[in-house]
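Sample intake — chitinase
Collected from: Pantoea phytobeneficialis
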Amino acid sequence: MKKLSIIAIATLSAIYGSNVFAVEVTPEESGKISADLHGSAGEVSRHRGERLKTKIQWKAWSNDMEGLHPHSPKNYQVYKVEYAKPGDIYPSSGNSNEMILKENENGFAANLEKNVPFQLNSNKIVGMYYDEWAYWERSFSADLVPAKNLTHIFWSFLGLCDFGAQRPGNVTLPSTGNTGLVAEGNERGQKILKGMCGQGNLPTESGDTSWQGNDTPAKQQGDFNVTRYDPQASYYGLKALERMKKANPQLNVMVSIGGWSMSAPFHAMVETKEGRDIFVNSVMNFLSENPFVDGIDLDWEFVGSTGPSAMGNLATDGYQKEKERYTALVKELRKAMDAKYSGAQRKQLSAAVSASPAKLAAIDFNSLKDDFDFINIMTYDMYGAFARNPGHQAAVYAKPIAGTYYQQGGQDKVKDEAGNIIIDGQGNDMTGEQTQRGFSTEGAVKAILDNNPNFPSEKLVVGAAAYSRGWHSVSVKQEHDKLFWHGIANGEEVSRKGLGSNGSYEHGVTDYRELYDNIISKKQDVYYDKQAEAAYIWKPIAKVNGNPTAQVETFDSQRSVIAKGDLVKKYKLGGMFAWAASNDNGLILNSMNAAVCNKQANGSYYNFSEDYNGVVDTKVIDSQNGVPTKVDESMSGPVAYNFNGQNYCNSSTPEVPETPESQAPTVTLDKTSINVVGTSDYGFGYPVIAGSNQDSVTWKWERIEGNSDIYLKSYDKASAEIVVPKNLFDVSAKFRVTATNGDKKSGEAFVTVNVVKPAVSISGSNTMASANPVKLEAEANFDQVTYAWTLKQGAQVVANGIDQNGQIKAGLAAGDYIAEVTASSVKGARSATQTHAVKVTQEVQNNDQAFINGMKLGLQFKDEGNRYFITGTVASSQTPTSKPNYSWSPMGGTQESTNGLSYFTFSVEKTSSPQLMNLKVDVTAGKETRQLMENFTVPALSGSAGYPAWAYGNNYKAGDVVTHKGKVFECVVAGWCSQTGQWSQLHYEPEVGISWTQAWKYHK
């Protein structure tokens, strides 16, 4: 380690100001500091800022609500709300009719907060995801989205049903129950999704699932069908998106499926053609029900690797198998969408993908170049409070040296969940360190383009983060002050709450709006890493073990968004998108538009200024085999960054050549392939539109190969019509369009027409129990189709054996049957027939899964003075098919030789202090397993330092400790612990009241 001389520092200070230092750093010095394992974040802020706040609330009672299900949207409305204090959960304003949000009270014109209206004249994507849960605590309804400034809005998310209902029989992966939501701490959300799939009642706010009523938003659905997740937010959100599109016709409304906490079912769904068919058909049904939706965004996080789940690993077949299945899914979905929607009604297909080179290896972008309209690379969340080693979460470029690269296992080859070494598209494996070094915006772009040379860069869209990821306490060595990537995060445990900063609505994640209001606008503690092109906050706190320590937030600023725009120019990318609309105050979206050179609505360029307390620059001094071994880190500042949109957009770039007419024209087509189903009575014409990057060109169309009966209607215009006559089947033709400029330089593009025979396929199980009949699905390769079903046993038609929706009737005798469907269309004479074998058995339905899902563990306690007896009993609402086995694991105590039964009793000797314990039981029924666990507290010996039992209405103060139902609690807020009145016990009884965590916490 070597610092600059006093003379050098003095020179830099004269130029840049007083906040100056420089230090040389090697891998041996970066990240080599011990973490303090104590401390955790405080409460989230719930910062909403000074803006219009809108929220779904229960309507004032009226007679027309009588008998409705509590989740029926008819019980709710979008209201304008206010809060007495920023951190309040519930608004202080009422839900009167005067407060209902009117249709003209919205932000669609980009006129709220700091949004500035833009023209969308750059031909680049400017997109934003909208999180449907923002309707609730964030009080940011879809009505507030600045749609005028967007080419694409992504509604997030649709979920996938996966609860073991009507599941294709040959899927080997267990049903996940969408436990990703539980793994993220959202158990009620899992119950909501289960209810929306028709596999149980929807829970109330307290989690109660006994409520029933009319107009339920749920419907019975089998596994792998897509479903709306939130019954109220999705109802009002989709209505808002439809109005949003009417107000801004340029807007493309996309609906995203999956997301971080709801992607677990993808792994089983793609495993078989039957599973993919269910998914594709349900997506097509959703598009039919919501015709204003312009496309589907697949957000599987992640292909080849399991995201959050309580099921363990799910990508057990390895990334190569999942790569093949993902390719098949995308192609099948693209085919279905194109078959039904063409021309102006054509639907777009996109995907959100990881920025990690290892995860990107699980997607065959080359094979999908014609299927995807574009790809959203999630160039954020690269670092965060899910790990102790900090780094920039959304940097354009990776750091040459950072502590996270040199952790244990960093030199091991990266493997998938099946144990296979991951190989990229060039045949290279990678170590953990190499993967981390490629973890950046540019690294993700290069990983896709280098490994998939046929994939167009114009279809790649990079992401901006309208939020920070942060740690409540990061320590660095004295010489690395403010260089947080060389430090370590302190905290109780490796979890977001243990390591993360307070956050706006979850620990470790703070909205850009809050960063701006509380820190950026006050010009405090904000720094910029020039080499990484990333902003961060270093907010000093007390030293830890003598080391400089601070709260750290890493985020995209306006300056780093412009740096991502430079990357869009450099690689000729398709544009930018951001997560998420509810986090931004307008400045991130403004800078995104400026970064792709959209002018403001008034015709002027966008300019801005940002102040930084310091700017870090990193230079590589030494390297070995291309890997940096020593860097110079220098800090200067304070610095003001001034952005001039006109200068930025008028600068010469590869994207806009200075003399384009001296080069050959580039030709693009709105489609490069046309798939046609032949007819027997008349032909069809298919328009194709060409475009060029040069204005004054002449056009020429010609058929260059294939069937000569397929012909062109025009030859010398940018648009042409390709005609497929009747009675053509299983033939193809290829056409070329040429654009020639005044310098006689030409560019060309090609479109292929494939004509196939009418066909119909049947999907569904080949076996069924007589008492549990299956439903078959037919899909023709042509539209405006009607289906006619028959069921035969041998040569005999079974009367009413199958209805015209493909549902086989119950009660059939055991045996072999043939289901036959004939598909026909009046749009051109098209007809096709297909058969499907079905074996009917009298097998008893396996009820083990239902038994396992219905289990609950109950505890009973008996106090015998010096000993405390605990009896655990497992009960289920369902009867299993197989005999269950119970394996009990008490924490402490004496076993009473009841292991293997559904009940278990043991005792614990009492001590002078209460004892926190738990009881676990692993239950097996057939092939199904599940673990249940309950925590409890053994009270102290009488007359010792035990705690009193909780009593309703007692006058508690903060810090008081009580016992209740076998557990120990500590009062947090005296006013709530001691509440009396009509609703107090319902809300604040420890571990029972729906808002008890506001008053009490578990006592450690």
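Post-analysis note: Confidence is low (pLDDT under 50) at residues 1-18, 653-661.
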